[in-house]
Amino acid sequence: YLLLILCGFQRMEAQDLQVEDFESLTLGNASGQGGLSTFDGTDSDYQIVYEDENQGNVLQITGPANDASGRYLWKDFLWASRTPGNDFIQVEYDFYTGSATSSLGSTGIELYNSDYSVTIGGFRFVPETKVLTGLVYFDNAGNIDTYFIDLGTENNELVLSPDTWYRVGFAFNPVTGEVIWKGPGFYAGIFGAAAGIDPYEADFTVIPDAGNTVANVAKFDSLLITAAATENLLGVKDL
């Protein structure tokens, strides 16, 4: 009983900025529904599809069968509308790892600043190898850029199971620059170089690598973006 009270308290201190489980959307083209926007590709590359009785409707993004361009989908949120003191932005979502593929590239989610010059943080999943890494804007001995962070134990790669849905989340504090990642078997954080940079947009991404010749199909669900005074990733799932 006490555990339920504590969990409920943690959830209450978070403020919803964006909630999307795709259940209220019509099957078919995602662009234009529910405030969803896309960049690159055609409308048919972004679909609302029915997955199964557990996931219900999900977002499906089909990447290119070349290495020419990526796919990006987002829904606007207003960071300035948060309650004062809720300085952690938290981004949580479900994604499907898929079966074996020879497609070269990655899928995931990326958090940007207002002019898209900085990828503040996020996740990168490689369907070919099933490796999940964190993303962070970081000062590496004076080389400031967005870097990949291994999420496995002892700084090893984290390899996920094929054909499996996972829920993951990351948090960013623009006051301190701290980025935290949480998911199956990992809970890690680092102080990045994005202190003083406000978050603006979180995009689902499907990005091909050089030499890609096979389209990758990515599936996402249950996006939840919150603002909180303290990080409490994956505490209680409302979706």
Characterization of this structure:
The chain is mainly beta and 239 residues long. It contains one helix and 17 strands. The strands form two sheets. Strands 1, 2, 4, 5, 7, 13, 14, 15 and 17 form a nine-stranded antiparallel β-sheet that branches. A hairpin with a 3-residue loop joins strand 4 (46-52) and strand 5. The longest helix has 11 residues, at 2-12. The protein is globular. The chain starts with a helix and ends in an 11-residue tail after the last strand.
Summarize this structure briefly.
With 239 residues, this protein is mainly beta. Helix content is 5%, strand content 49%.
Element layout with pairings:
Blueprint: H1 2-12, E1 14-20, E2 28-29, E3 36-39, E4 46-52, E5 56-62, E6 71-75, E7 88-96, E8 105-112, E9 119-126, E10 131-140, E11 143-150, E12 158-159, E13 165-172, E14 178-183, E15 186-191, E16 201-208, E17 217-228
Could you spell the SSE succession in H and E letters? HEEEEEEEEEEEEEEEEE
Task: Please tally the β strands and state the result.
Answer: 17
Given as residue ranges, the uncertain stretches (5+ residues, pLDDT < 50) are 1-12
Q: Residue-averaged pLDDT, rounded?
A: 92
Biggest β-sheet: count, sense, barrel? 9 strands, antiparallel
> Structural class given helices, strands, pairing?
mainly beta
Helix content: under 10%
Shape: globular
Q: Strand-residue fraction?
A: over 45%
Distance between the termini: 22 Å
Rg, Cα atoms, Å: 17 Å
Number of helices: 1
